[in-house]
């Protein structure tokens, strides 16, 4: 319901009308400044504004095309409302990194970044994996980890313990971003209508642990440069933003083994762009169909199979090249070639599987 409020100076202010004003500006192809985005986030998260009004704003923003300034302002406004796990990078046993994709590519691949997290942690990084249940795919990171018996609901103290002890921990978006509950039903409705909004892209940028290094996959090649600008504005130390191509030219929010990959590299406050093709490094090309997953049960078996060495071929290769990118961003490999070698060693030695088993056992230790 759009309930008018009277300000101290007697002016009547209706939240829905205020958001409609911003929507109209977006429809006129005008960008919003940081203050306007801050107001918009407040209005989006209030129950006083009708879901239809919120949906129209988000749709108009996406149709115009979100700028780096608008996305960064969204991130800052939402992070103020997040639960801070108070993770101190200086007390961690290695460089902190998140490996995460936006989702939204519509290809229903197996959970690549979740698999990669175990490999990168085995290689010496501290992976603060931020994720959620499925929205646009058949299986989200929270869904598959829950199926594997990994705790997805660790409170801050237990999360910090997991990161220190295992170099790996999962931050469940629904737990650490309680403000999002106000938007859950509307977002689900828009997802069912295949309507994209800024929230389809924001997930990787909203890690409450604030890692200064990130490997982010995006569903739209336009977002590689924009995300790099956002992360530079947010003072990240190092990041790769990647968008791969499938054999059918479909976009993949990972480094691809099916085609070329566009990379925006943020390092030393500078952004460079490149095209890489892992076939140049001896990784065989594979069709997208060989990378597709299924429900949580099937994807959990895939993760266990890759880490235990029982699954080879395209899915193992996809894990290796994306873990390699994670190692480069974490500063543990000089280049992708060295990262590939390190990723293979972590899987073949069983150390990546040990990380999975450690997290599965962490639940038992954490339980009363």
Structural overview:
This protein is an alpha/beta fold. The chain is 46% helix and 14% strand. The protein contains 15 helices and ten strands. Strands 3, 4, 5, 6, 7, 8, 9 and 10 form an eight-stranded mixed beta sheet that branches. It has a two-stranded antiparallel sheet with strand order 1-2. Strand 7 and strand 8 form a beta hairpin.
What's the layout of helices and strands?
Layout: E1 5-6, E2 12-13, H1 15-27, H2 34-44, H3 51-64, H4 68-79, E3 96-101, H5 112-122, E4 126-131, H6 141-148, H7 156-166, E5 168-172, H8 173-176, H9 184-192, H10 199-202, E6 213-217, H11 222-233, E7 238-245, E8 251-252, E9 261-267, E10 270-276, H12 296-308, H13 314-330, H14 336-348, H15 351-366
Parallel strand pairs: 3-4, 3-6, 4-5, 6-7
Antiparallel strand pairs: 1-2, 7-8, 7-9, 9-10
In short:
This protein has 368 residues and is α/β, with parallel strands linked by helices. It has helices at residues 15-27, 34-44, 51-64, 68-79, 112-122, 141-148, 156-166, 173-176, 184-192, 199-202, 222-233, 296-308, 314-330, 336-348, 351-366; strands spanning 5-6, 12-13, 96-101, 126-131, 168-172, 213-217, 238-245, 251-252, 261-267, 270-276.
């Amino acid at each position: 319901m759009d309930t008018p409020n009277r300000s101290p100076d007697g002016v009547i202010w209706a939240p829905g009308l205020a958001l409609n004003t911003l929507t109209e500006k977006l429809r006129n192809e005008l960008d919003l400044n940081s203050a306007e985005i801050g107001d918009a986030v407040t209005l989006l998260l209030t129950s006083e504004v009708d879901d239809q009004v919120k949906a129209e704003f988000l749709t108009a923003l996406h149709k115009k095309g979100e700028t780096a300034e608008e996305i960064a302002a969204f991130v800052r406004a939402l992070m103020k409302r997040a639960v801070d796990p108070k993770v101190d990078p200086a007390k961690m046993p290695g460089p902190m990194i998140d490996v995460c994709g936006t989702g939204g590519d519509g290809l229903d691949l197996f959970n690549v970044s979740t698999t990669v997290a175990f490999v990168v942690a085995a290689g010496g990084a501290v992976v603060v994996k931020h994720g959620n249940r499925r929205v646009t795919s058949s299986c989200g990171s929270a869904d598959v980890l829950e199926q594997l018996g990994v705790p997805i609901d660790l409170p801050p103290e237990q999360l910090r313990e997991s990161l220190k002890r295992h170099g790996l921990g999962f931050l469940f978006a629904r737990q650490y971003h309680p403000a999002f509950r106000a938007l859950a039903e509307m977002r689900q409705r828009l997802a069912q209508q295949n309507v994209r909004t800024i929230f389809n892209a924001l997930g990787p940028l909203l890690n409450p642990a604030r890692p200064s290094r990130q490997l982010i996959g995006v569903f739209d090649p336009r977002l590689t440069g924009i995300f790099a600008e956002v992360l530079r504005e947010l003072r990240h130390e190092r990041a790769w933003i990647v968008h791969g191509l499938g054999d059918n030219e479909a976009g993949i929010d990972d480094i691809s083994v099916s085609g070329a990959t566009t990379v925006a590299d943020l390092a030393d406050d500078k952004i460079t762009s490149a095209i890489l093709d892992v076939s140049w490094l001896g990784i065989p090309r594979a069709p997208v169909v060989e990378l597709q997953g299924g429900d949580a049960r099937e994807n959990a078996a895939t993760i266990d199979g890759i880490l235990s060495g029982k699954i080879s071929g395209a899915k193992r290769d996809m894990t290796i090249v994306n873990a390699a990118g994670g190692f480069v961003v974490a500063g543990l490999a000089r280049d992708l070639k060295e990262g590939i070698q390190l990723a293979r060693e972590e899987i073949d030695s069983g150390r990546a599987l040990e990380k999975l088993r450690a997290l599965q056992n962490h639940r038992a230790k954490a339980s009363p």
